[in-house]
Write a structure and sequence with these properties.
The complex is a heterodimer of chains A (170) and B (417). Chain A is α+β, with helices and mostly antiparallel strands. Chain A contains 2 helices and 7 strands; from the N terminus they run H-E-H-E-E-E-E-E-E. Chain B is mainly beta and 417 residues long. Chain B is built from 2 helices and 31 strands. The chains are: A alpha+beta (170), B mainly beta (417).
Chain lengths: 170, 417
């Protein structure tokens, strides 16, 4: 009987010590309390690899000139294991100057993408500088030296799948 | 039974010992791993807001496209106003989107100043309509509705013919205006809830104006347009003691010498950047009671300043410049008492704006806001939408500039959203 009592006591101590240890671990994992800054996710941690990917061909960007009829080459890729249907590409071309209201938008559809499929998309765009008359839409205080051109490409597919890249031209 | 006797206490003892050991191990081991081992920095990427290419501790205060300039802290230091492509926007310091902005395409702002925590003054001019109708195209000071007024910043023109303005430490603005009563002269006005002219006139056109840290005097750079006297087409530095003046000469620059930016009242006298047009420029000061500019000690020979801004207590000078012709442009803080110059940015490849209004100290003197963007030699591609990019466009950055224990937390701790 005494032996059983001792065994019971030992087991209880072991149980409470282990429980305490796990509580301690749980508190350490919970981090700072309310009011503290939200910690950043470590940026090196490999995030879930997006199924839909998109990228500009940088060598082709270097060939772009100011003027109409410029060709932008983008690759869109399905990195997932299932087919992605109805992939649409939008390319917005805008000035760095937000006071300019002229924004050019180009759209195309690449249809379905099979698993692992990568497809080139060529878009002809107008990179003409704003005409003097169009300058009227920018306040005179808002003239930027060496104004940059922004090409923002977005791929969108059903199910909330999307990818975006921005190219900034000097 | 007797054989079992020794086993029971042993198993109980072992179980207890195991539990205690496990608990101790977990407690001591886990505590060490969290508090004792620093989190390793991650490699920088071009679009990384936490590492814009200006060195540790520098954090962006704005994002996305648009030409930003003229940053100004609210008196509490909680908000920042700035010019964005000819409009004025204002927002809490660490938010990505702004709360209010002027609207319309017939207006071009070049500056903003806080009249109080809730009221902004906007410096700019009406463009299209009035100019086309042959009306005045002078710059004006506009008052805005208080912050609790929803919607865009509505403007009410308060002073016309504005040349420059600076905020007083105890609220309100000092504004230099073209003097309608005397051609080629200027006057000073106090703007609070009302507008009151200061007596006397300022000879010349005001190029730059700054109020001393205690608010008792203004330092002015003026250009004389009047022909036929020794000051014709020369730049003169003046001071004006409030509330009655008159303006007195601090220094008359030699013919062909220009002032870059705004002269600053700071410990040791009026400080300014000057040189022949096109440079090189140097940092000078005129000690009180003297009219002779002298090089400012501390920056070192060969230092090339581009713009300066005195700290709120006047003991330090924020200086954008290069240590020598071959070094990158950086933001430095010059301690005027000790003459020590400390780099507060470590420019990797950023272009700094050096306009007369493009530097601003936080009210507590712990940081300096500058305007910069990444240099581009060719197309640059980012894995993010344009609105969330900082270094690709001119944006505001807060650089820590106070004593280490008063500096804002490092950028990596908290990123704007």
């Amino acid at each position: 009987m005494r032996g059983f009592a001792l065994w019971l006591l030992g087991a209880s101590v072991a149980f409470f010590a282990a429980a305490g240890a796990f509580l301690l671990l749980a508190n350490l994992g919970a981090g700072p309390g309310r009011g503290a800054q939200i910690p950043q996710a470590p940026r090196d941690t490999p995030a879930a690899r997006p199924e839909l990917a998109l990228r500009f061909v940088e060598s082709r960007l270097e060939e772009l000139e100011s003027g109409p009829g410029q060709t932008v080459l983008i690759y869109v890729e399905n990195r997932g294991e299932g087919e992605i249907p109805e992939v649409d590409i939008t390319l917005n071309v805008a000035s760095e100057n937000t006071a300019r209201t002229r924004k050019r938008e180009y759209q195309t559809s690449v249809g379905n993408l099979a698993p692992g499929e990568r497809r080139p998309v060529e878009l002809e765009v107008d990179l003409s500088p704003p005409m003097p008359a169009e300058d009227g839409d920018a306040p005179s205080g808002g003239k930027i030296e060496d104004e940059r051109e922004i090409l923002e490409a977005t791929a969108i597919a059903p199910g909330g799948r999307s990818a975006v890249q921005t190219a900034v031209l000097p | 039974m007797p054989r079992n006797k020794p086993r029971r206490p042993l198993s109980a003892t072992l179980a207890a010992a195991f539990a205690v050991a496990l608990g101790s191990l977990l407690a001591s081991g886990c505590g060490e791993s969290v508090e004792g081992v620093p989190i390793q920095p991650t490699p920088a990427r071009p679009q990384d807001a936490a590492d814009p290419g200006l060195g540790p501790g520098v954090r962006p205060l704005s994002f996305g496209p648009g030409d930003k300039s003229s940053p100004r802290f609210s008196p509490s230091g909680d908000r920042v106003a700035f010019v964005l492509d000819g409009h004025v926007a204002e927002k809490p310091l660490y938010t990505q989107s702004f709360d209010r902005k002027t609207e319309g395409d017939d207006f071009a702002a070049w500056g903003a100043e806080w009249l109080s925590e809730d009221n902004l003054a906007v410096l700019g001019r009406k463009t299209a309509g009035e100019a086309a109708a042959g009306a005045s195209t002078l710059d004006s000071l506009f008052l805005t509705a208080p912050r609790d007024d929803p919607g865009p910043l509505r403007l009410l023109e308060a002073v016309e013919g504005v040349e420059e303005a600076d905020a007083l430490p105890d609220r309100g603005l000092v504004v230099a205006v073209e003097a309608p009563w005397e051609e080629g002269s200027s006057g000073l006005m106090l703007v609070r809830r009302w507008v009151k002219p200061y007596p006397g006139s300022i000879p010349g056109r005001v190029l730059g104006l700054s109020v001393s840290p205690d608010g008792s005097e203004a330092a002015l750079a003026v250009r004389h347009d009047k022909a036929g006297n020794e000051t014709e087409d020369r730049v003169e530095l003046l001071s004006y003691r409030f509330p009655a003046g008159p303006a007195r000469r601090v220094a008359l620059l030699a013919e062909g010498q220009e002032v870059l930016g705004v002269p600053q009242w700071a410990e040791g006298g009026v400080h300014f950047v000057a040189g022949a047009e096109g440079g090189p420029y140097a940092l000078y000061r005129v000690p009180e009671g003297s009219e002779e500019p002298e090089p400012v000690p501390g920056v070192g020979e060969g230092f090339l300043p581009a713009s300066i801004e005195a700290s709120p207590d006047g003991r330090k000078l924020a200086v954008v410049g290069r240590r020598n012709a071959g070094s990158p442009k950086d933001l430095y803080v010059l301690d005027l008492a000790s003459g020590t110059l400390e780099a507060v940015t470590a420019n990797e490849d950023m272009e700094f704006k050096t306009g007369p209004r493009d530097l601003a100290w936080s009210p507590d003197g712990s940081g300096v806001v500058l305007v910069a963007r990444g240099a581009l030699s060719g197309p640059e591609v980012y894995d993010a939408p344009a609105r969330s990019l900082a270094p690709a466009f001119y944006n505001l950055y807060l650089a820590p500039a106070g004593p280490p224990d008063e500096r804002p937390e490092e950028a990596t701790r908290d990123r704007p959203r």
